[in-house]
Amino acid sequence: MQLSIASIRERRGASLPFDFIVPAEEWAPLGGEVPAVAPVHVHGHVTNTGESMLVQGEATGEFALVCARCLKPIRARLRADLEERFRRQAGRAPQRDPEWEDVPAGGDEEDDFRPYHGDRLDLENAVREALLLQVPMKPVCQPDCRGLCPQCGANLNEGDCGCEPEIGDPRFAVLREWGKRPPEDK
Ligand SMILES: [Zn+2]
Ligand SMILES: [Zn+2]
């Protein structure tokens, strides 16, 4: 996701469109816990505002998640808005490092800018962070997923397991819901 801005670098107010399709295999090592299962699409435009290169656009993709109730693998479509400012740094580009080196620390005004070197913006970290922020805290395979039996661990979507049902008394419904939740310390 290298974006060449050579043609607008000296032209304040000029902008350039971009469009990347990142194959899932190339995204996989970037996504960490959230691998892509389809190409990740990133598009938008970059504008030379004079003080920085402003990248605006969106990223969409389909990712492998796990249902928070029944632990079944699921695919989720995620979409994220991109809005990032890049500022040119003097000196040589650093060695490519898979760690999240240029994550803005926040607070200090300078930190609102990501660095770039030469005539290229690397959108990779910005895109990855934007998409990871869209991952739901508790993804579910279906809105009414019944989860796992709190007693025997059976997947209740596949049928009743035969454990003592607490059906009938609405006062227990809350407790049943509670029992379906996975441990909080994940
Ligand atoms: Zn589920
Ligand atoms: Zn059971």
Classify the beta-strand content into a percent band: 25-35%
Number of strands: 7
Largest sheet: 5 strands, mixed
How are strands sequenced across the largest beta sheet?
Answer: 2-3-4-5-6
The percent range for helix content is: 10-25%
What ligand molecules are bound, each kind once? Answer: zinc ion
In quaternary terms, these chains amount to single chain
General shape = elongated
Order of helices and strands: EEHEEEEEHH
> Which residues form runs of ≥5 with pLDDT under 50?
103-108
List the helices and strands and how they pair.
Layout (H helix, E strand, L loop, with lengths): L1 E3 L10 E8 L1 H8 L8 E9 L4 E14 L6 E16 L24 E4 L3 E3 L1 H9 L40 H8 L6
Parallel strand pairs: 5-6
Antiparallel strand pairs: 1-7, 2-3, 3-4, 4-5
Defining traits:
binds zinc ion; two-stranded antiparallel ribbon; five-stranded mixed sheet; alpha+beta; elongated; 7 strands; 186 residues; 2 domains
Can you describe what's shown?
With 186 residues, the chain is an alpha+beta fold. The protein has two domains: 2-132, no CATH class; 146-186, no CATH class. Helix content is 13%, strand content 31%. It is built from three helices and seven strands. It has helices at residues 24-31, 124-132, 173-180, and strands spanning 2-4, 15-22, 40-48, 53-66, 73-88, 113-116, 120-122. The protein has a five-stranded mixed beta sheet. A two-stranded antiparallel ribbon has the order 1-7. The protein is elongated and about 75 Å long. Residues 103-108 have low confidence and may be disordered.
